[in-house]
Design a protein that fits this description.
Layout lengths: L4 H4 L12 E5 L5 H9 L4 E5 L3 H9 L3 E2 L1
Parallel strand pairs: 1-2, 2-3
Length: 66
């Protein structure tokens, strides 16, 4: 977890053009999908986390989370 969000987002420039959704498994509080959304707003971001508190924090940022 010591890498920056910029380092972790390396894959974004390699996505096929027809991709609509980005799913973050283990999204914690949604900070990474918030970062991705700021830099690549054309996708729909969904978080997945098993901690209900983290799910709520992600939802508070405006993202779907399950």
């Amino acid at each position: 977890m010591s890498k920056t969000f910029f380092d972790k987002a390396w894959f974004m420039s390699h996505l096929p053009e027809d991709i609509l959704y980005i799913v973050d498994y283990g999204c914690a509080d949604g900070s990474f999908i918030e970062f991705l959304n700021r830099n690549c707003p054309s996708y729909i971001y969904i978080g997945i986390d098993n901690d209900p508190k983290m799910q709520e924090l992600t939802k508070e940022k405006g993202f779907e989370c399950y």
